[in-house]
Amino acid sequence: MRCGSEENIEDYHHTTPDLQTSKRISRHVRSYTIYKGTGGTGHVPICSSCKKEFSNWKIYNGISLGLIIVFWLFFSFMLLLLMIAGPGSIAPGLEDIPFESIQIGFGISLAFAIISIIIFFYINYVSKSNPKKYIIISKGIILVKPIGFSNWIFLQDFQNL
Ligand SMILES: [Zn+2]
Predict the structure, then answer these.
(1) Could you tell me the distance, in angstroms and rounded to a whole number, from the CA of residue 8 to the centre of ligand 1?
(2) pTM of the model
(3) Among 17, 95, 141, 150, which is least packed, fewest CB within 10 Å?
(4) How far, in Å, is the centroid of ligand 1 from the Cα of 45?
(5) Could you tell me if residue 16 is inside a domain?
């Protein structure tokens, strides 16, 4: 379905998550999530090499999400440290750390934060192996956009071409 190849066709299991909204009951009660039922799961026939690309993409996506979380935690921590150890106000426990070191650390963490944005952008928008670029399931209906197509079409229509 993706590249047009009809060799070694396999079923690819795809899920488009539902859109969600969160409702807060009150200031003290945790919010709950409403699933709007907009997504869905389904099987799409693709060739084995596309299937391999998709599964590799999932691995890279998982690794990058982990990295992005670590980078942003580091960045938040350094930002906090920078604020509490500002040039004038020396916080207890931070007296021994030169302010310049904190500034350099913050600079490094900022660079990591920017790198993580680039990784996120690449994985989600640039990478041609992102299955979400080719398959969308909306309210249980499978739409596909094979390579060379400019519009989304129903999987059923594509199979009848
Ligand atoms: Zn293919």
Answers:
(1) 9
(2) 0.80
(3) 150
(4) 9
(5) no
